């Protein structure tokens, strides 16, 4: 009997989002970084943060989880999330970020609004200088979390105002553990060599591994794919 066709809903929600941890403690890998953020979540006093490391290692996931734990039901009103690779110039600092920092939001004592800047190392120098001034002016009400691949591309005046948390690539076993959870939840038929190929091509990047797993599943049960496009070893997997 042929496997059932995947539900259309399986394609609607990226699995990266569907299975994103909602608590810092559930973030996979980087135990030292996660432990530091757990302390912040427990104490409730978040400093400005720079989360630095390769793509797909949990930087954005960690800060989103931390923001949810700190702000609870106020998250929607008290968090501004931007991708700095799209909004990288002065205008985003002068308009979106400054307006958000000025916005009044009622929070628990000791809590702050949070600006999350993904790919912050792509911001122009001028935008970073403006951001540094905004961080100073609104330090009583707003905290900033900058996720980047390379912290050295963040200007020193911002670095000196932030706690830097470093992430590294995930191990194959760490990625496999998460993939097996998703495989079970989504009822994905698989061959071990297929998962090995996905993990191999992901190269420590959980986001890529989950995206590749979902893309493979979406081509239905009769298709074989190869990893030739990645320029690495070839492998086949059944989905």
TrEMBL record:
<dbReference type="InterPro" id="IPR047854">
    <property type="entry name" value="RFC_lid"/>
</dbReference>
<dbReference type="Pfam" id="PF00004">
    <property type="entry name" value="AAA"/>
</dbReference>
<feature type="domain" description="AAA+ ATPase">
    <location>
        <begin position="45"/>
        <end position="171"/>
    </location>
</feature>
<dbReference type="InterPro" id="IPR003593">
    <property type="entry name" value="AAA+_ATPase"/>
</dbReference>
<dbReference type="InterPro" id="IPR050238">
    <property type="entry name" value="DNA_Rep/Repair_Clamp_Loader"/>
</dbReference>
<dbReference type="GO" id="GO:0005634">
    <property type="term" value="C:nucleus"/>
</dbReference>
<dbReference type="GO" id="GO:0006260">
    <property type="term" value="P:DNA replication"/>
</dbReference>
<comment type="subunit">
    <text>Heterotetramer of subunits RFC2, RFC3, RFC4 and RFC5 that can form a complex with RFC1.</text>
</comment>
<dbReference type="GO" id="GO:0005524">
    <property type="term" value="F:ATP binding"/>
</dbReference>
<keyword id="KW-0067">ATP-binding</keyword>
<keyword id="KW-0539">Nucleus</keyword>
<comment type="similarity">
    <text>Belongs to the activator 1 small subunits family.</text>
</comment>
<dbReference type="InterPro" id="IPR003959">
    <property type="entry name" value="ATPase_AAA_core"/>
</dbReference>
<dbReference type="GO" id="GO:0016887">
    <property type="term" value="F:ATP hydrolysis activity"/>
</dbReference>
<protein>
    <recommendedName>
        <fullName>AAA+ ATPase domain-containing protein</fullName>
    </recommendedName>
</protein>
<dbReference type="InterPro" id="IPR027417">
    <property type="entry name" value="P-loop_NTPase"/>
</dbReference>
<keyword id="KW-0547">Nucleotide-binding</keyword>
<keyword id="KW-0235">DNA replication</keyword>
């Amino acid at each position: 009997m042929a496997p059932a066709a995947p539900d259309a809903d399986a394609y609607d929600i990226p699995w990266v989002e569907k299975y994103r941890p909602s608590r810092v403690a559930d973030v996979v890998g980087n135990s030292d970084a996660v432990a530091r953020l757990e302390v912040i979540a427990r104490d409730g006093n978040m400093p400005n943060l720079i989360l630095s490391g390769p793509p797909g290692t949990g930087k954005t996931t960690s800060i989103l989880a931390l923001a949810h734990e700190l702000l609870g039901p106020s998250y929607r009103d008290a968090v501004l999330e931007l991708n700095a690779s799209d909004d990288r110039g002065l205008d985003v600092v002068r308009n979106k970020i400054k307006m958000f920092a000025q916005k009044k939001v009622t929070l628990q004592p000791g809590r702050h609004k949070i600006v999350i800047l993904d790919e912050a190392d792509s911001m122009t120098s001028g935008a970073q200088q403006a951001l540094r001034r905004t961080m100073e002016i609104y330090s009583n009400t707003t905290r900033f979390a900058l996720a980047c691949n390379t912290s050295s591309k963040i200007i020193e005046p911002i670095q000196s105002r932030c706690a830097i948390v470093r992430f590294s690539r995930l191990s194959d076993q760490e990625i496999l553990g998460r993939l097996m959870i998703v495989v079970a939840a989504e009822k994905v038929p698989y061959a071990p060599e297929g998962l090995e190929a996905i993990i191999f091509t992901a190269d420590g990047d959980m986001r890529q591994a989950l995206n590749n797993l979902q893309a493979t599943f979406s081509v239905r049960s009769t298709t074989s794919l190869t990893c030739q496009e990645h320029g690495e070893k070839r492998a086949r997997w059944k989905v």
